[in-house]
Give the backbone structure.
Amino acid sequence: MTNPLKLRKQQPRSGFLTPMLRELRPIEHGLLQDHLQRLSPESRILRFGCPVSSVFIETYCQNKGRPKPIIFGALIGETLCGVVELRFGENIPQNVAELGISVEDDWQDTGIGTKLMEIALRCARDNGIAVLEVNFLPHNTAMRRLTQKFGANFSYQMGMTKAIIALPRSSYAVVAGSKRPQ
Ligand SMILES: CC(C)(COP(=O)(O)OP(=O)(O)OC[C@H]1O[C@@H](n2cnc3c(N)ncnc32)[C@H](O)[C@@H]1OP(=O)(O)O)[C@@H](O)C(=O)NCCC(=O)NCCS
């Protein structure tokens, strides 16, 4: 029998447009704020683990005193419909990044989150990051499923689920594109 979920994934809900996935240049990082402000109240809670105000989002996006994040976006024209952020600094070791991800409500469950995770993991590996941490609310089934697909191990801390994705270093031949098993 056809799985209706899979069928839906082949047909993004917002017409025939297919988002383009790419890293945002630092000058484009301002797009993140508009994207996060467009999330529904429920998705905002899931993204940040609690209800947050527009002012909080503004401050979060200013990223004051922290290294610049790496941000990949799913873009429809110049509008972001999904984002994955790799954030650094603040009490976390240098080879660890914190991952935050969000897909706008109309675009959820169409495979964009999976594509954003793929691209973020590849970039993290290429930049020598050994571990990705993702924190989310325990009832966030979509995020649990998404991180599970990328080999996460789970623990629970202060009411949040912490997913740890270990990234073994690729050998030189893999980085260079060799298809030979290593
Ligand atoms: C979590 C989130 C990023 C997933 O993005 P997405 O584009 O919907 O993900 P995908 O379509 O690639 O689906 C990923 C998996 O989750 C499952 N899934 C998606 N939405 C789901 C839902 N509402 N309930 C249960 N499972 C769901 C999919 O079936 C898929 O699993 P499969 O490949 O085994 O079929 C998105 O739901 C979101 O932005 N949520 C709000 C913000 C948030 O929760 N961020 C996480 C904290 S940083």
